[in-house]
Amino acid sequence: MPSLPGMPSLPGMPGLPGMPGAPGGRGRRALVARPSRWPLWLAALCLLGFGVRMFYLFHWLHPMVPLGDSYYYHQAANLFADGRGWPDPYELRETGRYIADAQHPPLTSGLLAVPSLLGFTGFLSHQVFCCLLGVCSIAVVGLAGRRLAGPVTGLVAAGVAAVYPGMWLNDPLVMSESTGILTCSCLILAGLRFAEGRRVADAAWLGLALAAVMLARAELALLGLTLVVPLVGLARQAPWRRRAGLLAVAAATCVLALAPWVAYNLERFREPEYLSSGLGSTLAVTHCPTTYAGPQLGWWSYGCVRALPTPPLERSERDVFYRDAAVSYLRTHSDRLPVVAAARFGRTWGFYRPWQQLRFDQVELRPRGPSTAGLVMLWVLEPTALAGVVVLRRRRVTTLPLVAVPITLSIATLVVYGTTRFRAAAEPALVLLGAVAVTAFLEWLWSRPGRTPGTPAGGIPALGGSGEPYGGPDRAPGPASTWGPDRGTGIERPHPAPWLSGTGARCDKPEAAGTFFVCRTLRIFGHPFRDRSPAVPVVRRRHRRGRQHRFDS
Q1: What whole-number distance in Å separates Cα of residue 436 and Cα of residue 455?
Q2: Strand, helix or coil at 134?
Q3: Is the per-residue pLDDT at 124 higher than 90?
Q4: Which residue has the higher pLDDT, 428 or 454?
Q5: Smaller CB count within 10 Å for the chain: N or C?
């Protein structure tokens, strides 16, 4: 009995004409693939991203004098590594007084203390270390993309993260945006993992990732309400008691991770301070006449603080003083709040006075050229990300871990001020959603029928190498629901193979002009592409032989 299409040939069983093993046949061949090279390609993209960051550092920023937040993180890391705790580095430099401070959450300076402990205390060393944190973000984004929509989507997302300026503009500046991007990427990955498994360990990782985000950017504590609680509470497959238990695990893990820093702050400040004592000063520079009207609408101004009386020296009391001043101004000018909030939102997402915002960004030492490239790419990425949301919704894949970060960031922007670097924490979500949209479009483009006359979608020829679909040219394409005789050939026809999320057209015989180079390139990734079209039924079987995978059809 001859072997059927899609069935393995048994020993001693001759093949049909044109099938593998048949003399003189030129039909469909088995696709032999090596083990997945996906980790190697991810490592290559990480190296590419590191090269881009190093070029940006030494071509535009080196040598750089640390100012503002860059000086704070750099000196705070060195002071912490020296065992001097967490003082205000500005006050220590100007007056020599040691004053306890928590202007910023500790994760950025704590990570920078690692090279300081190893003897690399210079600012350049901290710049390179922040670039390495950016490379870690590329790897996490690639892993999240693979879990979200398959290995090709993961590589596309990692490639975009390697070259997209929004992901690397802040790295050599030694700012908290580097840790914000990394921790938000980890939170997205943890959210996707929890959505798939809903295990206790997944809930624990979700809570730990949330704590890391809060220790990097205090305003992102809102993600506990916009992401963690809905993600756990809306797990419809689990009973309410199970959901409550998982939520308790996530909350307990988050609280335990935050407890050392919170206890340290409660012990050394007069007023209660939990994550940061910088909220009051941030509100003070953003709620005043300068930022409520005029050219700086929606931004910030040091003139707001200079117009206030002298604040207390103790940092928690100063925080309360600045908060009261900002709230007082906000209450008397609440009619302007919708306009100011719209301007802040537009500045953050590149809609409101974008070229002016690029000039404002130069105050924080961001070069004009890379910032302009990042703005243009953002305008392309935003609609692509919206298309990615539509694709995931049609595939019934949860989008909450991806959309929660941009939404939360936008809410925080409305409260404080609008600027480019506030958007950094949402860049991984934009990159992932954009990668989903790009790969979905390519899947549709490669799998649509009728690209080459006589060749069905996926470039798979007919039995005997005639170039016609199953059953000849008169065979109407359609799915086969069961095993049964095929009209025109009298052979058994297999049921179409199911489609796996994140895969596209399978390239068993990519002789068609539109598929050859695409398929050959994607085979390098170690990923077999299969056809979703019902006109081309294929059966996928996997045989492990040593270190090779064999795909028969």
Answers
A1: 28
A2: helix
A3: yes
A4: 428
A5: N
> How far apart, in whole angstroms, are the C-alpha atoms of residue 92 and residue 83?
15
Q: Are 348 and 360 in contact (CB under 8 A)?
A: no
CA 323 to chain centre: 33
What does the alpha-carbon distance between residue 32 and residue 549 come to, in Å, rounded to a whole number? Answer: 6
Identify the pLDDT of residue 432.
Answer: 97
Element holding 212 (H helix, E strand): helix 200-216
Cis omega before residue 63 (within 30°)? yes
**Residues whose CB falls within 8 Å of the CB of residue 411, separated by 6 or more in sequence, listed in order:** 222, 226
- 69 Cβ contact list (under 8 Å, min separation 6): 104, 175, 176, 364
By residue count, the chain amounts to 553
Closest C-alpha among 378, 505, 535, 358 to residue 445: 505
Please say whether the beta carbons of 150 and 502 come within 8 A. yes
Average pLDDT, the chain: 79
324 CB-near residues (< 8 Å, 6+ apart) = none
Q: Beta strand pairing status for 492-493 and 541-545? A: unpaired
Predicted TM-score (pTM) of the model is 0.76
390, two tokens: 């539509």
The residue written with tokens 């019934």 in the block is: 396
At 30-62, the pLDDT tens digits run 333 344 789 999 999 999 999 999 999 999 998
Tokens matching residue 442: 């390519």
Which helix (H) or strand (E) is 180 found in, with range? helix 176-197
Count the neighbouring beta carbons within 10 Å of the beta carbon of residue 211. Answer: 24
Three-point CA angle 111, 115, 117, nearest 5°: 100
Per-residue confidence (pLDDT) for residue 470, from 0 to 100:
29
**Residue 59 in 3-state DSSP?**
helix
pLDDT band at residue 449 under the 50/70/90 scheme: low
Bridge partners of 82?
none
Tell the residue number behind the tokens 């040091």, with chain if given: 302
Taking a C-beta distance cutoff of 8 angstroms, is the pair 140, 187 a contact? no
Would the pLDDT of 10 be above 60? no
- 451 SS3 class: coil
Give, in order, the Cα–Cα distances in Å from 120 to each of 9, 76, 78, 125, 286. 63, 14, 9, 6, 36
Report which DSSP code applies to 22: S
Tokens in use for 14? 């001759």
